[in-house]
Amino acid sequence: MTRDHALALDKADKLAFLRDFFEVPEDLIHLDANSVGPMPKGTRETAKGLLDDWVTLRRRGWAERQWLDMPSLLGDAIAPMIGAGKGEVVMCDSTTLNQFKAVAHALSINANRNTILTQSGNFPTDLHVLEGLKHVFSRDLRVIFCASEDEAIAALNEDTAVAAVSHVDYRSGERWDMARVTKAAHDQGVLTVWDVSHSAGAVSVDVRAADADFVIGCGYKYLCSGPGGPAFIYAKPGLADRAHPAIAGWMGHADVFAFAGKYEPHPGVKRFLTGTPPVGANELAKPLLDIWPKVDPQALWAKHKSLTDYLIARLRTECGPLGVTVTSPEDHARRGGNVSFSSPGAGSVVEALLDQGVVSSFRKPGAIRFGVSPLVIRHVDIYDAVQRLKHVLKAEIWKQPKYAKVAV
C-alpha cells in the first residue's frame, strides 16, 4: 500500500475526468464532502451571469431565463443518482421543509393510523420535524424510536402510519437496507420517508428498486449544489396525488400564472413546490445540469467502494497501533458516504488536521468522519490524508493547547 500503488489505482480510474469539472485546491484534501461538496468550475461564471441579469433583465429574467424551471431541471439531473426517473424529483427548499411535506403527506394518506417510527439516533432536524408534527395534527400522534434496522422492522404494525428514517446514520456512517425496510413497512400498510442526505451522490440509492414512497435529502453534500443549496424531494408516481400538500404554495399550483384564489395542486411531485424559487441558490447549482448527466451511477458507486475500502485498510494499518478504531461497517453495502472512526482526542485531532491540510469533521461524543466524494477524491488523497493523521497522532500534535477548542 505505497503511494505509487495509490497513484496506479488513480491512473486506472475511468471517472478521473470528473475532477476537472470542479475547483479542487491542490494543497487541501477535502474529506468533509458530507458538509459542503466541491464547487463546479462553472459556478463563478454562472454567478456573474446572474448578477448581470439582475442589473439588466430584472423581471424579464423570469421569461428569458430558466429561473422558474430550475427546480424541475435540477431534479431531473440528479434523479439517476437516486434511481428515479424524469419528472419524479424536484429540487426545492431545505431538507427540513421537505421532511415536513413528505411525512405530513404520508400521515394524511394513512389518516387512520397514529404512530410515526424513526431512529433514536436520527439526525436532529428530522427528529424535530417529527416532534413538531405531533402539535400540528389534531389526532393523538406518537413517535417511537428504534435503535436498529431489525428493531424498526419488528416495531412496524397496523397503527404505524409512516416510517421516517435516515438511509445513513450521520455519525457512524451505517446504511440501512432500503428495500428490506420498505418491504417490511408495506407488508404492514406503512408508508416510508427516507432521508438520503448522507448517501445520494456517493453510494447506491435506488428508490424504484426499493419501491420507496417518499425520499428527501439535501443537495449541498455529495450532490454539490453549494452551501445551503436546494434540497430535493421524490414521490413515488401516483402517491403525491393521493393527498393535499401540507404547504400549499403558488409554485405548486396546477396553473402558476392563473393567480387563482382557490388552490388546485399540480399533479405529481411538483405539488411539493411552494413559493418563489430561490434563484440565487439555484443558479449556483446550475452547472450540475452539465455534470450529473455525464456520471454513470454504477461507476460512481464502485469508485466510492474502492476509495473507502482503501481508506479503512489504511486507517487500520497505519493508525490502528496509535489508537484508531474504525466504527463504520466493514461491508460497503452497509456504509454511507462517510467513514467514521474514533481516536484519542478525536475533536482536537480534527482541529490539528486542518493545519495539516486535511478537512474532516467531528461529531460528539467521539466520531471523526472522513466524507469521501467520489467525484473528486483520489486514492492518493486517501493515502496522504492517512499519513498526515498518523503524524498528528504519533507526534501528539493534537495535544497542543491551540487545538483544545473544537468546532463542529
Note down, in words, how this protein is organized.
The structure is a single chain. The longest helix has 23 residues, at 297-319. Strand 14 (361-363) and strand 15 (367-371) form a beta hairpin. The protein is 36% helix and 14% strand. It has helices at 3-11, 43-56, 61-64, 70-78, 95-109, 124-136, 149-155, 178-187, 207-210, 279-285, 288-291, 297-319, 346-355, 379-394; strands at 22-23, 29-30, 39-40, 89-91, 115-119, 142-146, 160-166, 191-195, 214-217, 232-235, 325-326, 338-342, 358-359, 361-363, 367-371. It starts with a helix and ends in a 14-residue tail after the last helix. The chain folds into two domains: 3-40 and 296-403, Aspartate Aminotransferase, domain 1 (Alpha-Beta Complex); 48-286, Type I PLP-dependent aspartate aminotransferase-like (Major domain) (Aspartate Aminotransferase, domain 2). It is α/β, with parallel strands linked by helices and 408 residues long. The strands form four sheets. The chain has a seven-stranded mixed sheet, sandwiched between helices. It contains 14 helices and 15 strands.
Topology:
Blueprint: H1 3-11, E1 22-23, E2 29-30, E3 39-40, H2 43-56, H3 61-64, H4 70-78, E4 89-91, H5 95-109, E5 115-119, H6 124-136, E6 142-146, H7 149-155, E7 160-166, H8 178-187, E8 191-195, H9 207-210, E9 214-217, E10 232-235, H10 279-285, H11 288-291, H12 297-319, E11 325-326, E12 338-342, H13 346-355, E13 358-359, E14 361-363, E15 367-371, H14 379-394
Parallel strand pairs: 2-13, 5-6, 5-7, 7-8, 8-9
Antiparallel strand pairs: 1-3, 4-10, 9-10, 11-12, 12-15, 14-15
Helix pairs in contact: 1-14, 2-10, 5-6, 12-14
